[in-house]
UniProtKB/TrEMBL annotation:
Species this chain originates from: Panurus biarmicus
Keyword Magnesium: no
Ranges annotated as spanning the membrane: none
Alphabetized SUPFAM superfamilies for the sequence: Fibronectin type III
Any Pfam family matching the protein: fn3
SMART domains: FN3
Residue intervals of the Fibronectin type-III domain: 1-90, 92-180
Location(s) in or outside the cell: Secreted, Extracellular space
UniProt-recorded name of the protein: VWA1 protein
RNA-binding in keyword set: no
Name of the encoding gene: Vwa1
InterPro entries: ECM_Regulatory_Proteins, FN3_dom, FN3_sf, Ig-like_fold
Length: 184
């Protein structure tokens, strides 16, 4: 039951602490700085009524030293400290590759594969047109085969990375199916 962080993203986290003060008995002085650069310390005053606060605008993949100093006019409380490391920046898929294209299918692969991705969503539909199909792909995979397509058709394929944080980033590519065999 002490100062800790939850809801950590690449640029923010929520600090939660036990109720030590009340509105009447004082306030908290919150100090935080990147562990590697203590000189960049920022200080914030928080009402004694609060037991949590979101810090945002932080640098990705950075460890922060956080100290919560209860400024009480009744009791002395020792400062509470914690270290919190923000997540790596969430980058979008940087490339989408189409391969093994046949008259009725093609393979879509993408990179990089990131630990912070929960799943990928693939949207594809013929151009021009607005009929879109959706495929869900597990976040551990980086390719899938799209089937049941029309021959000699251009498709727009969009890969959306759905991050564990709820954020989404997309990248699109065009794919063409081969001409069908005669007699199809």
């Amino acid at each position: 039951n002490r100062l800790h962080a939850t809801d950590i993203t690449s640029s923010s986290f929520r600090l939660v602490w036990p109720k030590l003060l009340s509105q009447e008995t004082g306030y908290y002085s919150l100090e935080y700085a990147p562990a590697a650069e203590p000189a960049r310390k920022r200080t914030q005053q928080v009402s004694g009524a609060h037991t949590s606060l979101v810090l945002s605008g932080l640098a990705p993949q950075t460890t922060y030293e956080v100290a919560l100093v209860p400024e009480s006019n009744v009791h002395y409380f020792p400062p509470q400290t914690t270290r919190v490391t923000t997540l790596a920046e969430e980058i979008s898929p940087v490339q989408v590759l189409i391969s093994e294209s046949g008259p009725h299918s093609f393979q879509v692969s993408w990179a990089p594969v990131l630990d912070s991705v929960a799943s990928y969503q693939l949207l594809y539909g013929p151009l021009p047109g607005n009929s879109v199909q959706v495929l869900e792909v597990d976040g551990r995979h980086n390719s899938t085969v799209v089937e049941h397509l029309a021959p000699n058709t251009t498709y727009l394929v969009t890969v959306t990375a759905i991050y564990r944080s709820g954020m989404e980033k997309s990248l699109s590519a065009k794919a063409c199916t081969q001409e069908g065999e005669r007699g199809e």
